[in-house]
Each structure stands twice: as C-alpha cells, then as structure tokens.
Specification:
Number of helices: 18
Largest sheet: 7 strands, mixed
Shape: globular
Strand content: 15-25%
Length: about 525
C-alpha cells in the first residue's frame, strides 16, 4: 500500500498513549526507528494517570489504576526511567466480628507478629503454617514464571517444565483455585483473604470451571517474581510521565488530541487516519501498534468485533481529614489502612455476593478492599494537607458486573456506593462520612466509577480493566510468537488485551516492540 503523496511516513505509528504504548514508543525510538504516537485525549497515560479530582484541593490521586506489581525492573532499567515504588510494611488487614467482639487479621509487620495475629484469630498456628506453605509455593512459581513475560511465549509444556512442581501446576493451572484454597485453609476469613487475588477485575466464582479466577490469581501472585504490590511514588502518573519523557528523549513524536479512526493495511505498509479538532489527517507506517482494546482494534481495522467483554468493579477515590477509628481498638488505623483493608471478603461472603450478582442483583454486602496511598507516599498531598493529617483512600469493589448498571447507571452507582460504605462503617468506631474532606465548593471529596463509567471515560470494553478475559502466560491458539500479533502482519496489539496483558506492566508494549524489532 504505497503512501499517498505528501503523507508523512514512519517506521511505527502507535495508536494510544497509555503506559504500554509509551513503553513501545520508547523501545522503538531507542532502537533508531521513527515513531509517531497518537493519543485521543489531551494527555498521555490512559488508565495509569494522576489527577486532582476534587475542586480546589491539592491532592494528586491515582485516579484509575493504583498499584504496581507486574512492571518488570528490566523495563525500568532499560528505559532509564526516573520512577520508584515503595513497598508496604503491612500486607493486609481484614476486620471481622467473632463471639460478639470486633477483631481482625493483620498480615505484615514481621513473621512473628503475623504468626500471633493468626493464632489470636483462629485459636492456633495451623492456618499460619498453611499460609506460609501456600505462599511459599506461589513464590516459587512466581520466580520461574515472571521472567518469561518479556520473552517469546513459551509453549504450555515448556512453561510446565519451567514451573517444575507438579502439585503447584495442578493447583494453579488445572483445578479451580477454590479447590486449592479449601485444601490449604479451614478458616473462612483466611480463605476469603486468599481468594480475593483471584477476583480483582474478574467476575467469577472460586469453583468456576472456566478457570478465569485462576488466571487472575496467577497474575496477582507472580508480579516482580514475589507477588508484592507496591505503591508508585508520586502516584501512577509519575510512571507514565517518566515513560513519555523517555520516549520523547529517544526521538519519538507524541501528539495528543489526535484520535485514530481507521487503519488500512495490506500487511506490508499501513495508513492511519486520525481526527483532530481541525479535521482529519493521514500518516503512513511500516508497522502500527494499537494500545487499545481488541474491541477498538476491530473497529479501526474493520474486522469482526470480538466477544463482548464485561468489567465487574466499583472504583472509589476519597480524601479524608483523618483516618477513621476502628472498632477493633487493638489495631492502629495507620497500619490497618496502609495495606489492603478487606471488607466483606470472607470466603462465604464472596460466594454469596457472586451468586447475587449473577442473578442480576446488587450484592447485599458488597465486597471491597481499600488502601491508603498517602501513608506510604505522602508526596501526592500538598504540604498543607499533609501537615494537617489528611489521607487518601482508594476503594476497589468486587462482584458488580456492568450488566447491573445498564438500566440506570447513576442511580445504581449511588445505591452501590451507599451500601459499600455501609459495609466499611460496620467496622469503624465513627462514620466514614465524618472523616471525609470537602472541596472548594463544600462537597465531600469522594468520587465513584462504575464499569460503564470506565468504558465511557477510557474505552475499557464494558469497563473490563483487562480489556478482555485474561489468558494463560503460555502460547495458545492464534497467540503468535510474542502474543501481540493480529490477523494483519504489520498491525500489533500492545494493550492490556494482548497475551500476558492486564495490569500496569508495560509487558505488551515491550513485547510489541520486540516483535517489530525481530528479537
């Protein structure tokens, strides 16, 4: 497909300036390729951005994606990114009422402290021993599997051989994760804490025969080779700002306010038609990398649309004047909220919530989890707010599929937010509403996003944060050598919907760049 006369031609045109598109741009530009990145919005970053959502308030929140686990050090190092993460000293706190007494499970603060916490909750050390054995197993798998994410896709047999442990392979890759959880643990609360990693952004039951929950669980426990989830210093936007700087420094051209509307290709060269406020334009390229969902890719190329995707989460951002006191007075709120604060996430509670949502009803006790970014990284708050003890809270709700919001998104959002916060209030010694800060107009500093909101704002299909159901980290039918290939030889998918996509990883961007470079 020869370029039309006067059409600018690049080695690579990248559609979409989310973190994966920026990773690809930086790698290709550093390799000496001419690169143009087209971003629809007025800024780069996609879902990995920081913003000040509350009028007149100097708090820069990670508005959508909010923790880092799957970003390989290899990418940070090779691109020379000015970016850091901080670990959380507390892994999680899960409140519960037992025997008429407010108590809970605090995981973190050292092995001995965690051991005591398990014993106080369950009556002995058996669950702690099982916890160590279980996460020792997942840790071994993480060390073997995580490095493969930036290599050509292994076959299933090759990955199985690399994992080595047949029990671990069966537990994570072949049987529903619910079987494994029930084999290892007896306590309902402990089982629920473990299971949540299988449900973040995935609407599934612990025993779903599709194993969608297993794939989600696997990606949550292999990050960095350890499974640790870290806090991005400066907020998630600090990562994408660093990536944009790296791409520009290497020579990539990045333009915002440019919406790609069509890709025409003959497999050797391609033309991308884009729209701006001033009209339409066309650029030509040897390769086109699409940092968008498979749904958007199909719309651009005119191919048949993929199976509809669906998200199942509520995302809530809050700013507090102070952290709320807990009914469990044995735990300092500064520790409880520093890790993942699990709400209504007992094993049976999760099963009930899933069954209710699958039946078309909002869960009566919506499960969710919260963490406080500013406890680990206070730089996201203006000096005045930090001095006055203000804190951020990020809430991620589970088991609320997009279909539940289809009739009246605004009304259902309000109802769900109210019931979700009521589940949190049940474990607080004071209402959360009393702790919320107010913005310059006197409104509470809280915003909620449903799956339909995320589809509208970011183009996530049905609000699915992974763009489509996660796949296994090995080659399957039609996944190609790197897992980024499409039916068009010179059009690659470098968004979260690529094989080994999902999460803030940069892996699809890296792999698409390697596919272009022939490595």
């Amino acid at each position: 497909m020869p370029a039309h006369e006067g059409t600018r031609t690049y080695d690579a045109v990248i559609v979409g300036g989310g973190h994966n598109g920026l990773v690809a741009a930086a790698y290709l530009a550093r390799a000496g390729r001419s690169v143009l990145l087209l971003e629809r919005l007025g800024h780069t970053g996609g879902a990995a951005v920081s913003s000040r959502p509350f009028a007149g308030v100097d708090a820069r929140l990670s508005r959508y994606s909010y923790l880092v686990s799957l970003l390989p050090d290899k990418i940070v190092r090779e691109l020379g990114l000015d970016f850091q993460v901080r670990g959380r000293t507390i892994s999680s706190y899960t409140p519960v009422e037992r025997g008429g007494r407010a108590t809970g499970l605090l995981v973190g603060g050292g092995e001995e402290r965690t051991r005591r916490a398990f014993a106080e909750l369950t009556g002995d050390e058996r669950e702690f021993t099982a916890w160590q054995r279980f996460y020792g197993m997942t840790g071994e798998v993480a060390q073997r599997v995580f490095p493969t994410l930036t290599e050509p896709l292994p076959t299933r047999a090759a990955l199985r051989a690399r994992v080595g442990d047949e029990h671990a392979w069966r537990a994570l890759f072949e049987e529903p994760v619910g079987v494994t959880v029930e084999e290892h643990f007896r306590d309902d609360l402990v089982r629920g804490v473990v299971l949540t990693d299988a449900l973040i952004g995935t609407f599934a039951d612990a025993h779903d025969p599709s194993l969608a929950q297993n794939r989600c669980f696997l990606y949550h426990v292999i990050g960095g080779g350890t499974g640790a989830w870290d806090v991005p210093v400066g907020g998630m936007g600090a990562l994408t700002d660093a990536l944009a700087d790296a791409a520009r420094a290497a020579g990539a051209e990045i333009v915002t306010g440019h919406e790609a509307v069509r890709i025409d290709t003959d497999g050797r060269t391609a033309e991308v038609t884009y729209r701006t406020g001033d009209g339409e334009g066309v650029v030509a390229a040897r390769h086109v990398l699409v940092n968008a969902s498979p749904r958007e890719l199909a719309a651009l190329t005119g191919d048949p649309a993929p199976e509809p995707a669906e998200g199942a989460q509520l995302k809530v951002n809050m700013l507090l004047k102070r952290l709320p006191r807990l009914k469990d007075s044995s735990v300092d709120p500064r520790e409880a909220f520093a890790g993942t604060f699990h709400i209504a996430e007992g094993y049976q509670q999760l099963a009930t919530a899933h069954a209710q949502a699958a039946a078309g009803e909002l869960p009566a006790a919506p499960p969710s989890e919260i963490y406080c970014h500013s406890l680990t990284d206070p730089t996201i708050l203006g000096p005045d707010l930090a001095e006055r003890g203000y804190q951020t809270l990020t809430l991620f709700g589970l088991h609320t599929p997009a279909r539940l919001f289809a009739h009246d998104n605004d009304a259902v959002r309000e109802e769900l937010l109210k019931s979700t916060l009521a589940q949190l209030d049940a474990h607080l010694a004071e209402p959360l509403a009393d702790c919320l800060a107010t913005d310059a107009d006197g409104r509470p500093c809280i915003e909620a996003k449903t799956p339909l909101d995320l589809d509208r704002d970011l183009g996530l299909p049905g609000g699915n944060i992974f763009h489509r159901p996660l796949g296994w980290p090995y080659g399957e039918e039609d996944t190609g050598r790197w897992g980024v290939e499409t039916r068009h030889a010179n059009v690659l998918l470098c968004g979260a919907g690529a094989a080994r996509g999902g999460g803030v990883s940069g892996v699809p961007g890296h792999n698409a760049a390697m596919a272009v470079l022939g490595e």
